[in-house]
Amino acid sequence: MEHQDSDSTLIKTIGMTVSKIALYICVCVTMGMVISTCKVDENVIIQCEESCGSQGVKEVTSTSCECAVPSDAFSSPFVIPSG
User: Fold this and answer.
1) What is the rounded distance in angstroms from the CA atom of residue 20 to the CA atom of residue 29?
2) Per-residue b/e over 60-82, b at no fewer than 16 CB within 10 Å?
3) Distance CA 12, CA 10 (A)
4) 65 - beta bridge partners?
5) What number of other Cβ atoms are within 10 A of residue 52's Cβ?
6) How many angstroms from the chain centroid is the CA of residue 83?
7) What 3-state DSSP class applies to 2?
8) CA-based nearest residue to 60, from 75, 47, 72, 45
9) CA distance linking residue 41 with residue 35, whole number of Å
10) Residue 73: is its pLDDT beyond 90?
11) Residue 11's pLDDT band (boundaries 50, 70, 90)?
12) Predicted local confidence at residue 77, as pLDDT
């Protein structure tokens, strides 16, 4: 009986240790990816500004470029234009 309790305790301890190690590795890899993708190259910003032109830039990240939406794009199609 006592032998089974010690085996059960050992298995639980090993399982918890392996789980914690896996969790720490995942957290470290995720943090490394976040830190390495925070940098935006100046050339990417310049290229995004050139691509957006007169619209202007809304957002630039290391993986995407989003142009600003023109102000007249927000007008409702159900409103009769004046003039």
Assistant:
1) 14
2) beeeebebeeeeeeeeeeeeeee
3) 5
4) 60
5) 16
6) 46
7) helix
8) 45
9) 14
10) no
11) very high
12) 65
